Each structure stands twice: as C-alpha cells, then as structure tokens.
Amino acid sequence: MFTLPNLPYSYNALEPFYDAKTVEIHHSKHHQTYTDKLNAAVKAAGAEGKTIEEILTSLESFETSKQTALRNHSGGFWNHTFFWESMTPNTTKETRVANGTLAELITKIFGSFEEFQKAFSAQAGAHFGSGWTWLVVSTSGGLEIIDTHDQVCPLSLGFTPLLVIDVWEHAYYIKHQNRRPEWIADFWNIVDWNKAEERFTQA
Question: What pTM did the predictor assign?
C-alpha cells in the first residue's frame, strides 16, 4: 500500500511565496486523495508489489480498462511527490539559479539561465487547463521544457524529470486566484536547484 509522503518542510516554510493554507490543502487533501485512489487502482489492476516507477513505465502492460485509473492516480501520486521535493525554503539570491553541470547545459541549450526561465515561464503560463510544466532530460540526453495534461507523468513518456511546476488551479488559487503568472514568478524563489542538479547527475 502506498502512503502519503511527508513534506520535507513545514506547511508555512515556503511563505511568502507559497502560502501555508494552499500547501496544507494541496498536500493533506489533494495528494492524499491521489494516494487513496492509487491504492484502489493498484488493487483493481493486480499491480500489488510494483513500485510507483514500475507502474508508470509499464502502463500499457495492464488491462486496457484499468489503464486510465492507473495513469491518473499513479501520476497524481508521483507528480505531487516530485513537486514537493522540487522546492525548498532555504534559498538565497545566489541559490535561486541553476548550478554545476546542469547550469552549463541550460546555458548551452537556451543561451542563458534567464532565457531558460523566460521559456519555462511562458510554457507554464500558456498551458491550457490542468497540468504541469517540466524541465526534463530527453532520450537523446539533451534538455527540454515539456508540459503534460492532467496527471500524465514524464516517466511514462520516456523522459527523466529534473524540475516541475504544478499549474492545476488548486495548486495556487487561494493566494493567486486566477493570476497564474504571479504563481510562476513566486515559484522561482523556492526552486531547489541543488535537488535539480542531483537529479541531473543521476540521470
């Protein structure tokens, strides 16, 4: 049985950029619901004993009628866990930019870190409806900015995720209401670039 992961920080730790009430509801209600429904979907599909990554990378191996529930709830569970771990309260002006080998590749591909931020923000802002915007390692080893709808997970598409922003309205609506660009701007202040670099070196 899958259980709701603990956050790596308190509900109010990301203030003022990510408000405590949204974080609490997002984690304890939305993420908990995906956890509960994932367990039901796993049982219905006979997927007990598999890791979440094994499920996400083998969705087509399950009975067709079970795939939608597995995709939605395994994705919802994994995507949210990855999202929480992509942020940190311990940022400074110096750590709010990419570092190490990831920074070098970002500059090589996008021209500069600032140009990468602009491209990522534009894609997140333009995403229609509910979903996520990701920085991923492609199958060729390069970097791409992609967005996925609903709870589709990049692992299911063959990508290795490094960073994600949640652009479902429930992720930001209490503080930012319908002003998604404000949420995206605040997000850059709490990105854990050390975690992104760690993920990149392990890809």
Answer: 0.96
Coil vs helix vs strand at 85: helix
171-191 as b/e, with b when 16 or more CB fall inside 10 Å?
bbbebbeeebeebbebbeebb
Q: 149 pairs with which residues across the strands? A: 131
Residue 99 — φ and ψ, nearest 5°?
Answer: -140, 170
Per-residue pLDDT of 104-123, as tens digits, reads 999 999 999 999 999 999 99
Give the right CATH number for 20-85 from 1.20.1640.10, 1.10.390.10, 1.10.8.420, 1.10.287.990.
1.10.287.990
Angle at CA of residue 2, ends 8 and 69, nearest 5°: 115
Start-to-end CA distance of the chain, whole Å, equals: 27
Domain limits, the chain: 20-85, 100-202
- 42-60 pLDDT, tens per residue? 999 999 999 999 999 999 9
